[in-house]
Specification:
25% of the residues lie in helices and 26% in strands. It has six helices and 14 strands.
Amino acid sequence: MIFVHFTDTHLQAPESKAYLNLDTTQKFREAVATVRALGVQPDFFIISGDLCHEGVVADYRHAKSLIEAELQPFGVPVLVALGNHDHRQPFREGFLNEPEADAPYYYAQMIGDVRVIVLDSKVGQHNVEGMIDAEQIEWLKALLQQPAPGGNIIVLHHPPTPNTLPMLKDHGLRNAEALADVLEGHSVHGIFAGHIHFNSIGSFHGITTAAGTGVAFELAPAGEGMHFYDSWGFNLVQIADGITTVQPIAALSQRKELYSLTREQLQQMMAQQHA
């Protein structure tokens, strides 16, 4: 099984004011073109949150149209998760064509004999940390009791593992150990996340875990402050003979720094968001 892990696309409708003057629509098209150029036929695609940047209905309608145009020719499923920039009510109206509702968006889909489980780790409106609520935990417990001969894949926005950038220490999954308890004893090929905008690949209680660079922009994975780069990337993932291989793909030739934040500036921004 081979699949493509996109994350943090931060798509915006053409009439929206572009974040950091970035054309995230074009970046998405370039990323998909790279998938084609690689010559692989993925079994499915995932987008692990922050599908849109402002999270308004027009953005989700644009995202739906773009994803259909770019990914439908592959003829395989596309599974999306929600991130901290997403808003559930506009998402349901603009992307799912459903009545507005603020309930968490989580589900599972069998692809061949493998079950892909998409969780909603969004908390509040502006929180950078994530959490899987009690309702999802109980749902996941019950779901894992049902057979999935080929094992499971978990998709969510907030990584359950620590990362290497000091200023993003609070950007993970708040109740990661609760997730670990539920997954213990079950066959899980990997956990795929985003949020931090750089590749971070590790092991979570023996499970391969990968956060992707992001399609919209990249952050430096270490150092003082936060360094934003005009670049994009995604993960090409293969599961074969019980081994999960994550291959980061990056557009390094386009990489240029957009701007930087000091620790004090970030703290001020966070304080203003929570005021």
